[in-house]
Amino acid sequence: MKHLLTFSLLFFILSCSSVQNEQAFEPNSIEIPVSTINYDSMTNWYFHPNQPFNFLETYDLDIAVIDENLNISSNIEISNNATTNTGIDVFWVHPTHLDNPSTDPSTVSIDNQDTNFIGLSILAQGALLAKYGRFYAPKYRQATPASFLSPFHTEEERAAGLLEAYSDIKASFQNYLDNHNNGNKIILAGHSQGSFLLAMLVRDLFDTNPELREKLVTAALGGMGYVYSSDTSTLGGWWQNIGLCKVTTECGCVHFWRSYENDLAIPEPNSTFPSYSETLKKIGLVFRTTEENNDTFFQDNLVFNTQSSPLRYITPGIQYSFSNGANFVAFDNMYTARFKRESTIKTGLAIDYIANFTDQRPNELENIVSLSSFEVGDYHIKDYHIYIWTLMQQIDDKINTCL
After folding, report:
1. Structurally, how many domains does the chain consist of?
2. Is it the case that residue 163 has pLDDT exceeding 60?
């Protein structure tokens, strides 16, 4: 099996075809292009309530809690509202899943992506959010990793790849907003590239629009990069008017987290990320670029503060024989988490493995095969499994209090 270049975990063993025909860009006259994807067509959505066949609609979201002897100690029932109008909609953007992409900033056409694999990974990471209401997940032309990470290209060249990917996300969201929202509240959620693109959407459409901000339950931007500000308000960085949630019951705010091994140093920020891009700022997709000498970086610390506390780790269960067919399993008393700050710009969610030596459950955070762009102890590919239960607890608080 060929190596998959991805910002998320390989949850299932799949054969992947080679990706060809990446689209290159000229750095001149950069602006947000017009998307060429027709989002009226249900074939351009991984999941959409109006699809004639929606696999997520019948997907069992219940979670089997597995003890250290590989027995099911309890079951957590999660209702599936993927096609039910609850008054809340979920808009999910998947992370990078590409096989052998170009080393230049560019995008890869939908036809040259492994859409079967991506659909499964959306189930693994985001399906539990269908608890809250109708679930929308668009296909899009993914930007190559060089668009985020390459130090060998100019900032304008990197921005060009991101802008074409963003044009699809904006077009798909606008299609949803114009034709399907009908006044519903909105949960934005994604991981890695998906979160970067949603961060741009938040700035572009929500940040200066009070009506849309009123619709926003939360933007759950796992593994995006950084939330930064010159003061503790967390405002005035990527977004002018939207910051991190200050209490779990607050709506219209951002949840951001990035996960690392507790005992290892948090890596330095990557200055090729979109928050540093003057081009994206000029276009209106970033309010103010990152200034490391003046800014402090932040992430969620409402549930996990500086003291370690138990973490409920949730992972796809169908890959394990002990799951008894459950699509999701939870491991309790296996990890702890804490908010860790090493400097004004080095902060993260620090994860510690605490299970005793007799515990038979697999330690999924051990010996993770990381991409070359990630350092040892960077749990980025597991961000959503690490935090999804905590995220859902906070969304429950919001729905019960501010909606």
Report:
1. 1
2. yes
